[in-house]
Amino acid sequence: MPQVVLPNQSNYKGEKPVGADRPSPQLALGKEDEPQWLKDFQRDGYAVVKDVVSREKALNYYAPAGEDWLEGFKLGYNRDDPSTWDVKNLPRHIFGGLYGQYSFSHAQFVWDAKTEPKIVELFESLWGTKELTVSFDGGSLAVPLPFDQVQMNAEPWPHSDQSAYRPQRHCVQGLPNILPNGPDDGGLTVLKGSANLFEQYFKEKMHLEPPEKWSTRDGFAWTEETLKWFYDRGCEWVKPVMEPGHFVIWDSRQVHYGAFPRKQNKRFAIYICYKPMAFLTEEQKARKIEAFNRGYVTTHDPCDFIVKSYQDAELNINFPYGKPVVNEQGQKAIGLILY
Ligand SMILES: [Fe+2]
């Protein structure tokens, strides 16, 4: 078998986004019993779905599992002692708590979340198929830190998770929220309605394309100046209030960022995307299995992913807590066993 090549985020130089020559999956629309969240999602570019996990399980299983994960590195962080809530006591992360190394995507509690039946069902009704493939994207365990220890001093970092060269709806991402999440707490913040304007923006703004081109990686960073076009079309910032066990789903084109906690509450979330398995090529399936076996964290797209930076770097530890036990549903979604 030829060696599997895993494109890496730090040196991806493709002329087009990965898989740009293949079609994008379409939403399963027009059913009589179309749920309200799916209508909200189409109109606003995001939707909140309540109680995909029970409040009890979020608070009594997922939250302590996240704390165990942070404390287990034995760098000095103690969940109950705010004097230890300091960047030097935590594993490497970005934006104050976003984890893209240490096999975060393959921690036992993360796999348990990915295979939560109501989360899987949500993506089944979104795409109209039970044969889905899952992402290995990271997650957020944001502990309040002094703002000067946080990237960009904990200011907003508005971005989309698709390339300017992939303007159509191509990926839908989501997260279960683990801790109470009010207006001053950290959490997903979205520019409501921006996903549906993404394509039009790049049509109108081709003259802004820099000589070195926009990134072909699935990401686009926005500024207040570039966002004015969206504000002029009625888009407004919204930070959905979320209870433990609520899920938020959003179009990867939506302008968004993870707000850093402004007060003493932590913010825990696990990133989860599913896409129809039919869109995963055989080559991508081989890559996915290899990434799983190595414990790698990838970008959001379950099919057209590339591997996050530093997976093989000295600073990283793959499977710091051993390999996860993945149930049958999860093994199917990786491609280890057939549907
Ligand atoms: Fe994002």
From TrEMBL:
Biased composition regions of type Polar residues, renumbered to the chain: 1-12
A family per Pfam: PhyH
Region (Disordered): 1-33
PANTHER family named among the record's database cross-references: PHYTANOYL-COA DIOXYGENASE-RELATED, PHYTANOYL-COA DIOXYGENASE-RELATED-RELATED
Name by which UniProt lists this protein: Phytanoyl-CoA dioxygenase
Species annotation: Dacryopinax primogenitus (strain DJM 731) (Brown rot fungus)
